[in-house]
Amino acid sequence: MKNQNDTYRLSNGVGIPCVGFGTWQTPNGEVAVSAVRSAIECGYRHIDTAQVYGNEESVGEGIRQSGIKREELFITTKLWNNNHSYERALSSFEGSLEKLGIDYVDMFLIHWPNPKPLRDGLWEAANAESWRAMEELYEAGKIRAIGISNFRPHHIEALLKTAKIAPMVNQIRLCPGDTADETVAYCREHGMLIEAYSPLGTGKIFEVKEMQALAEKYGHSIAQICIRWSLQRGYLPLPKSVTPSRIAENLGVFDFELEDEDVQMIADLKGCVGYAPDPDEVGF
Predict the structure, then answer these.
(1) CA 148 to CA 71: how far, in whole Å?
(2) Which terminus of the chain has a smaller tally of CB atoms within 10 A, N or C?
(3) Model pTM?
């Protein structure tokens, strides 16, 4: 990847920009509007949101204020846990379109595989029904790509029992020391692109001495080291910030390359920023 306009190619042939702008924990209102507008002005063309983030309206407004043509952007949103059924997936998707102010999304993901209310043997059927709705929306041209988030191999295997279209993406937490090797390998074997949310370990990475040393070695920030590492591992990172200077900084990762031994060293920092929550045990 030589610049932010380079793309990964999904299994259906759709191109997806190699770095996305994350909006998790960005509050609805002017903060989100300004952050998204700033990101697009800096060169991001891939914007990631979700129903549960509560900021789809402001993400859409930031997109409109940017003045960039809709077809030049790649926009993702995600199905929240209380919408896991055929009918609710369809209706909530239409709600997302209305909030975003657009008539299609580039990608729609099931956000979590096993919501707490569905733990008693209901999650598999609920995912199958949600996926059936997403397949219909995809075939109708309202979604250009469909995928999943926070799914582990056993969740994917269950979904594939009934899916007509295999997921094209799995978006999971991936950052230094938390590499989810089994899930990543499984997804790649099944043709799925891996998206990395929280690529900076929700800020904890800045305290890691090994990362501080690498920042000095390469003359780049720790955030840039993390994002570059993610790209060299073949992930699609989704860094998030609301500060214009940091939003721009997070794209400054195409003028250097990490040495192979440093890529591995970063991967081996096991637990330095904690681990992803178990999707079968989350409390929502």
Answers:
(1) 23
(2) C
(3) 0.97
